[in-house]
């Protein structure tokens, strides 16, 4: 029986920060908390980014919850918090935040890395980037659910 727990797994417009995620997962039994914050940067592929926003398929909340639950099943004794932001974001805003607490750092690192990679690969969230030259690029749209 797993002693893991998903504290939160969400997709939405709320502002994200690692302190909130850390505080949600840490307990006195934990010797490690690994956090990840995917931050909006001012460039992509050598081009200046003027603005961007994220859109999500209606199933995105259920998918991120499934991803978090599956990660919790694979890593015993972890506590997981993960969220992906949608809507317009500014340079420096967090778009994806995750935290994993565990008694041991190896487990926390492994679970957090797998969690973030799987969220990026499976959760139907798409990025619209507007570049300084006015061109627009959608990232991940070809992976949209049918």
Features:
single chain; 146 residues; alpha+beta; 5-stranded antiparallel beta sheet; 4-stranded mixed beta sheet; 3 helices; elongated
Structural class: alpha+beta
Percent of residues in helices comes to 25-40%
What's the count of strands?
A: 9
Query: Whole-number radius of gyration?
Result: 16 Å
Largest sheet: 5 strands, antiparallel
C-alpha end-to-end distance: 35 Å
Number of DSSP helical runs: 3
The coarse silhouette is: elongated
Query: Strand-residue fraction?
Result: 35-45%
Low-confidence regions: none
Q: What oligomeric state do these chains adopt?
A: single chain
The H/E string reads: EHEEEHEEEHEE
Mean pLDDT: 94
Polypeptide structure, described:
With 146 residues, the chain is an alpha+beta fold. It contains 3 helices and 9 strands. The chain has helices spanning 18-25, 60-74, 105-122, and strands at 5-12, 32-39, 43-44, 47-56, 79-85, 87-89, 94-102, 125-131, 136-139. Strands 3, 4, 6, 8 and 9 form a 5-stranded antiparallel sheet that branches. A hairpin with a 4-residue loop joins β8 and β9. The chain is elongated and about 50 Å long. The termini are far apart. The mean pLDDT is 94.
Could you provide a short overview of the structure?
With 146 residues, the protein is an alpha+beta fold.
Topology, element by element:
Blueprint: E1 5-12, H1 18-25, E2 32-39, E3 43-44, E4 47-56, H2 60-74, E5 79-85, E6 87-89, E7 94-102, H3 105-122, E8 125-131, E9 136-139
Parallel strand pairs: 1-5
Antiparallel strand pairs: 2-7, 3-4, 4-6, 4-8, 5-7, 8-9
Helix pairs in contact: 2-3
């Amino acid at each position: 029986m797993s002693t893991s727990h998903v504290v939160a797994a969400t997709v939405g417009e709320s502002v994200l920060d690692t302190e909130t995620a850390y505080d949600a997962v840490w307990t006195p039994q934990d010797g490690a908390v690994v956090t990840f914050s995917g931050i909006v940067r001012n460039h992509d592929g050598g081009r200046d980014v003027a603005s961007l926003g994220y859109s999500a398929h209606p199933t995105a909340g259920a998918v991120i919850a499934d991803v978090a639950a599956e990660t919790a099943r694979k890593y015993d004794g972890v506590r997981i918090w993960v969220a992906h932001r949608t809507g317009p974001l500014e340079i420096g805003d967090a778009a994806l935040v995750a935290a994993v607490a565990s008694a041991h750092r190896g487990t926390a690192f492994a679970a957090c890395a797998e969690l973030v990679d799987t969220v990026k690969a499976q959760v139907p969230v798409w990025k619209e980037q507007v570049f300084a030259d006015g061109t627009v690029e959608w990232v991940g749209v070809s992976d949209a659910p049918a």
